[in-house]
Amino acid sequence: MGRLSLSSRLALLFAACTAVVSLFAGVLFSRASEAHFVELDQQLLDGKLIGLRRALQDVQPGQREARLADELSRQADLSLRITGPDGQRWYDSSINVPSELPQQPGLSTINNDGTDYRVLNAPLYPDTSETPQLTLLLDITHHQHFLQRMQHLIWLTVGLSALATALLGAWAARSGLRPLRRMSAVARGISAHSLNARLPEAQMPPELAQMAHSFNAMLGRLDDSFQRLSAFSADIAHELRTPLSNLLTHTQVTLTRPRPLEDYREALHSNLEELQWMAQLVNDMLYLAKADHGLLMPRRETLELADESDVLLEFFAPLAEDAGVTLSREGHARIGGDRSMLRRALSNLLDNALRFTPAAGSVRVSIADQLHAVQVSVENSGEGISDELLPRLFDRFYRADPARREGSSEHAGLGLAITQSIVRAHGGQIHCESAAGWTRFVIELPKGN
């Protein structure tokens, strides 16, 4: 059997709840009615008992039956039996009185040949030990028939209520779950070309508004990731197309006619440079793929950031001197991290800063030991970057402007993306600021590392 739908489950649950409540209320009403009838019968029999005692008091023996018949004639469904102190039957008002009756004092209920009786046993003279016993029998068959009809009505009401509630519950559940069906329809219509579909959060019930918001946020993330993936695929195809085209063209030209050995060496050397760049590009992509899957596991060793920065500044000093750029470093701090990974991140930032710093400009490395984190900033003077471009600087294969796209093929636009991955692997954050002729990349690393 297939699984029940949510609407069917809710409808059955409503029906079950209604049936239980109706049945409970019906049982309470039936018990209350029965107790009410018992109380009425008790009052009636007590009143008749008092009347019979008065009727038999100070009455001549020959007149007792007439007085009893007169008293009982006022209640057609009432019968009387009198037994002597020795248990002998003295009087029966009707031939229909059952032969066997309860002997215990007080009120009781019996059934005889399909007829229900309420029986009251009491002494004729309460203050005397040796006294005849009066047994009053009240025919309550009509009471029982009423209670039976009421029980049948209760069962019918329970059944009809459950059925009506199930139907109404199914309609209410179907109407209430309409937003879920709308969400399902949107989900069915989602494809790579329709990730911009969104649910109308304002029209959702409060219980589903948060789900709709999360669903829309998920669609937004998927759309953004798909756009980035599409752009990344186009970018990597573009980046690889140029060196592959160069390799094919250069090889084809070299093979058009016989050439001296030196020309073949030069051609192979040129091809080797392109292949090395392509290999570096593939290695960088694999590195970023590991970062995306959380596979970058930095080693933890105590590092003096001032010493690490000085080593890198010394490495870039010849390039800075040729470009007429001044290098400097200020501040110091100690942190736990992976030396090779952090050096690569700082090296990418310094290389990026040197490439876009004009002659007579400056590149500064600042280290600040703060309360809960260590801040490292690499800043360079020169033309700034507009605010709308700053969030995209860490995208793969992205160059901020045409001037920054110039250069050899060795700069594919992956340096900042790799730097960001390294910083995040250490539990830190990186952002870029550009204002007043300075561009600053700021790294914040938690001291817990």
| Largest sheet report | 5 strands, antiparallel
Report low-confidence residues grouped into runs of 5 or more.
402-409
**Spatial order of the strands in the main sheet?**
2-1-5-4-3
Mean pLDDT: 82
Helix content: 40-55%
N/C terminus separation: 56 Å
Radius of gyration: 50 Å
Count of separate DSSP helical elements:
10
Percent of residues in β-strands: 15-25%
Structural class estimated from helices and strands: alpha+beta
Give helix and strand order, one letter per element, not per position. Answer: HHEEEEEHHHHEHEEHEEHHEE
The shape, in one word, is rod-shaped
Tell how many strands the DSSP assignment holds.
12
Description:
The chain is of the alpha+beta class. The chain is 53% helix and 18% strand. The protein has ten helices and twelve strands. It has a five-stranded antiparallel sheet with strand order 2-1-5-4-3, covered by helices on one side. A five-stranded mixed sheet has the order 7-9-10-12-11, with helices on one face. The chain is rod-shaped.
Characteristics of this structure?
53% helix, 12 strands, alpha+beta, 18% strand, 5-stranded antiparallel beta sheet, rod-shaped, 5-stranded mixed beta sheet, 449 residues
